[in-house]
What we know:
- By secondary structure, the chain is of the alpha/beta class.
- The chain folds into two domains: 2-185 and 344-417, Rossmann fold, CATH 3.40.50; 187-337, no CATH class.
- The chain has helices at residues 97-109, 126-143, 157-168, 186-203, 233-247, 250-257, 270-294, 315-324, 332-340, 369-373, 378-384, 400-417; strands spanning 2-5, 54-62, 65-72, 78-83, 113-117, 149-155, 175-179, 205-208, 211-217, 352-359, 385-393.
- The strands form two sheets. It has a nine-stranded mixed sheet, sandwiched between helices. Strands 8-9 form a two-stranded antiparallel ribbon.
- A hairpin with a 2-residue loop joins strand 8 and strand 9.
- Helix 2 crosses helix 3.
- The relative contact order is 0.15.
Amino acid sequence: MRAVDHRLALGGCLAAAVLxxxxxxxxxxxxxxxxxxxxxxxxxxxxxxxxxSWASVVEGEEGGALYxxxxxxxWNGDLVVLAHGYVDxxxxxxxxxxxxxxxxxxxxxxxxxxxxSSYAENGWAVKDGAQRTHALTEIFTERFAAPRRVxxxxxxxxxxxxxxxAERFPTQYAGIYSFxxxxxxxxxxxxxxxxxxxxxxxxxxxxxxxxxxxxIPVLPGDATHVDRTGLDLETGIRQVxxxxxxxxxxxxxxxxxxxxxxxxxLAGNRTQMINSIADQLFRHAREIDEIMARGHDAxxxxxxxxxxxxxxxxxxxLAFVNANVQRFGSTxxxxxxxxxxxxxxxxxQIPLVSLRSARDFALPAPLNDDSYFAKLTQDQRDRxxxxxxxxxxxxxxxxxxxxxxxxxxxxxxxxALGSGG
Length: 421
């Protein structure tokens, strides 16, 4: 293990600092949105986020993962452990600074120490991410001192990783903060992306160059495989999908009406509907082969016996969908792997605060927060859970002010319940 003590003020702030999901790393919107605007990407206030005053910043490596530990000048004794979101499997291992810079500075100014790391692998790395995130408290303790309380905070996939740790180690953490978290678990996440792609291929096709009498999907690959060799996901997936739906949105409309694909968009907003489906297809193409590989090149999802239905869709259209949709079977190993890494079971014992966009293109609420909260008892929901929904569209779309405010809500809730200390 290597460690470097910088003993400097870690900024991570631009003139108008922004907190970014690793799903959208490199794309920042720094101008303030109109109230309740439907925009994509995490936004910030039009003012700079001042850096916290860090007494010590330590970087190191453990088991192939990079980590950073930060202790503020006036430490209150508590530690916030952060879990980052999904990172493209083709990207190099790196510290997720873009995910956490302004948030870390904000909680640091409140007196909290902060620890976060990359994972030793990218992609759907729930198992490895949980191990690396859980180890941060021990690494921090060895380098500094045992924290009084440890708060978990996760973004996107990191929200599921934090929930995994909270359910398995409730006595070691004081509370959990999920920002646009994949709280519904792996199985529903995989099912949604594969269903969207399979249904899209029913309606959006082109002549087969080898046999003009036949058709093939307009997108490369299919629901279970996309060859990324030489493929630009923006131009080859997202833009192609958008163009096809803009030319004829009838198929897109039907996809949104299928019960298994609750596409999030503002009712009547055609552009948002198209962008929501195209965004999911982008994510599917980025992730599907890596996910299949984790199941030993097999699917965790089985739709062979599924009848796709939806209110308001006529029977002839439903018959056409069910006759033409791609069918894929699962294996016990792949299904078990998805459930193990990770489908939450509802054994929540510590406070949970969730902040999410009303129309999250990546993680629709019915298959995430709503699904998870349905596993909880009424007592768990009443005592432990607080949900804040911001009226925006896009994945992880909230201003830093709201992001930090809901962390404060978690701290207040933990203090009121007297947990974690």
